[in-house]
Design goal:
By secondary structure, the chain is α/β, with parallel strands linked by helices. The chain is built from 12 helices and 10 strands. Strand 1, helix 2 and strand 2 form a beta-alpha-beta unit.
């Protein structure tokens, strides 16, 4: 009887250990492992279909799937930066695109990341700079940020990096986003539609150049629109959030049909990040592929041409993943 009890306990212990292991695997997409065909599945959190993140992420997914044996990656449509960082924190995505200001709040556990705690994100690369587009309908008397008072303004999709920077820009101009404008929460494609339909007076969009949805607006006949300079708020933003996050960048007049001149706007860096517990070799290989197959990424979107060893390691609010650092040390980008 005693012998049977001991064996039963041992059996139960073994079952518990197996169950715990299965639960760990189920909660971690990097360990989910080996599914049909022995492929490791990776999810890349991107953004809306009208922006840069989604096609760029799709290109990265294609490169990973074609050039990293045993790994298959998929680009997922999301609300972008803030949403992506939360997905990384919860192990619901393996890689994610994010703006530097959103990442800064995430690793500190501040702002929208107060609830749920800091995100243990690690950078693979600083990819390119986002341009803060402020687009207004023509003929409504809006020529600068402060003129948005009393207007219907899309601040970006809820959970996006655009939403964060839009609220900061408005506050830097002395406007309360909740009271001084009628705020709308629309992605860039929906914002463009709202401008065309006269349902919005203006919208913010933080994205690369050119952004497909803005290009569509600029190419639409019969619609009057303007891309507004917004660097007048830059000193106030740098004073509050530091010099490192925000800078002056120029949208060249050739970027969109109808621009009469270059437009100075607030810029913020974009990064590709992963969870701190990603396997070092996997992080190394993904970083390596970004550079070895960069021409394939550029074919999908020209912003991929901005990736370089010198800029990839500069300006991240989060630490770099050890696997990525190994690659950069091998290439002499860091010591």
């Amino acid at each position: 009887m005693f012998e049977m009890t001991v064996r039963s306990r041992r059996s139960l212990s073994a079952v518990a250990l197996v169950a715990a292991a299965l639960l760990f695997v189920a909660c971690n997409p990097q360990q989910m492992a080996k599914r049909a065909g022995g492929k490791q599945r990776l999810s890349i959190a991107t953004g809306g279909t009208g922006g840069v993140y989604y096609p760029y992420g799709g290109a990265i997914a294609k490169v990973i799937s074609e050039h990293l044996p045993g790994v298959e990656a998929t680009a997922e449509v999301t609300a972008a930066s803030v949403d992506n960082l939360k997905l990384i924190r919860g192990h619901q995505s393996d890689l994610g695109f994010t703006l530097a200001d959103s990442l800064d709040e995430a690793v500190r556990g501040e702002g929208v990341f107060t609830q749920g705690g800091a995100v243990p994100a690690r950078a693979l690369a600083v990819l390119y700079t986002n341009y803060t587009h402020l687009v207004a309908r023509g003929g409504i008397g809006v020529v600068r940020v402060a003129d948005l008072r009393g207007k219907a303004v899309s601040l970006g999709a809820a959970g996006s990096g655009t939403e964060l920077i839009a609220t900061r820009v408005l506050r830097a101009a002395g406007l309360d986003p909740a009271r001084d404008v009628t705020p709308l929460s629309l992605g860039v494609s929906q914002s463009v539609d709202a401008i065309k339909d006269g349902k919005a007076d203006a919208f913010f969009w933080s994205g690369g150049v050119p952004t497909a949805a803005v290009l569509d607006l600029a190419s639409t006949s019969g619609v009057s629109w303007a891309l507004l300079a917004n660097t007048d708020v830059l000193p106030a933003m740098q004073a509050k959030y530091g010099q490192a996050l925000y800078s002056k960048v120029i949208v060249p007049k050739a970027a969109y049909p109808g621009l009469a001149a270059d437009v100075p706007v607030v810029g913020v860096a974009n990064l590709l990040v992963v969870h701190a517990d990603m396997n070092d070799q996997l992080a190394y290989d993904i970083t390596r592929l970004l550079f070895e197959h960069q021409p394939e990424l550029v074919v999908v979107h020209p912003e991929a041409a901005r990736l370089s060893l010198a800029t990839a390691v500069a300006g991240s609010p989060a630490p770099f993943h050890p696997g990525a650092l190994r690659y950069y040390r091998e290439r002499g980008a860091v010591k």
